Amino acid sequence: MRLISKLPNVGTTIFTVMSQLANDHKAINLGQGFPDFDPDIDLMTKVSQAMMESHNQYPPMAGVPELRNEISLKVKELYGRLYDPNQEVTVTSGATEALMASILAFVHEGDEVVVIEPCYDLYLPAIELAGGRPVVVAMQAPTEQVPRYSIDWQAVRDAITDRSKLLILNFPHNPTGINMQESDLDALEDIVQNTGIFLLGDEVYEHIVFDGQQHLSLATRPALSARSIVISSFGKTYNATGWKVGYCCAPAAMTAEIRKVHQFMVFTVNSPMQVGLANYMKNSRAHLALSSFYQQKRDRLVAGLAGTRFKPLQTQGSFFLLADYSAISDMPEADFARWMTTEHGVGVIPVSAFYQDAAADRSNHQLIRFCFAKRDDTLDTAIARLAKI
Ligand code: PMP
Ligand code: GLN
Predict the structure, then answer these.
(1) Which of 196, 223, 312, 360 is deepest in the core (most CB within 10 A)?
(2) What is the pTM of this model?
(3) Where in the chain is the domain with CATH 3.90.1150.10?
């Protein structure tokens, strides 16, 4: 017998590795992205009620109809595109499953998939599993003048060929915290017109956008939404990452293909969560309040870092903040992140982990990622520890 790995270069994800290290060393975990507080009690009550009201058997394969309906209403209200709940909205086991099912459904052997790095760790292995070929385009790294990453649209344009099947976009972006502006969507529209490329919009942080900006979903542009799969996650929106419920919206013919994979990956998603979420979503208060809730936490962390030798980059959205540690050490990022966790009691993620070749010099910019989805007292304790480094 010979077991041949389909993913020979993949190990355990950096988030699991760093959370384990933080636990082992009793460090404050600002690494893996999850809140250290509970979801709204009202949401937990609604989910519990759904269970007690006998929503405990298989729901429909594509998701509970009431939930798909609420998703459709919300997306129409926010982004102006009406997705048919029956044919264009699918509830998935987290955004993770939506991403994997979409990539497996769309990418054929030898197809090229354009990915912009740094990028979320799922994309490259998923493309590999599908037999596709990732074409990686680097973002422009931050500088003194522009203290955040930015997308090089000319490089994206140059990467697209007749063999490109899919372009994966993630915004607000993990890990860099950058977001799209109207000018970015203009560039994107111009690039994809007259091509056959599909777009995968990983928009799980759609409700965490700062400084008065609006999230500009791919669904806001008819020319883009016609070729897009738009993905979100209730884990991020309702502070319930452990529930693993997300969804994707895409034109009917595209959705039909995604559902063919979805039905054999998980078939459907647990029913009481879906029923509880559908009831809770009727009120838009929670998702509309999320940006200001997290902006206060971002500002708390940025203010705290002013008393340390870490230099924060700008973050426009998501619950992540990158910081430059070049005033402290010239260690590579992975070593520095481990050292912070084991010696200083604050767990973080090296940004190099979001690159195809994490060890390469071009993937190391002396940056680490903090997650600020934490109680204020957690942030304050971490900041006090950081000030000693
Ligand atoms: N995409 C990005 C960019 C993420 O940060 C995450 C988060 N954890 C996911 C997808 C997966 O989301 P979920 O937990 O809903 O599967
Ligand atoms: N998306 C989360 C992060 O970036 C982690 C999700 C996971 O652990 N797979 O930290």
Answers:
(1) 312
(2) 0.98
(3) 14-39+288-386
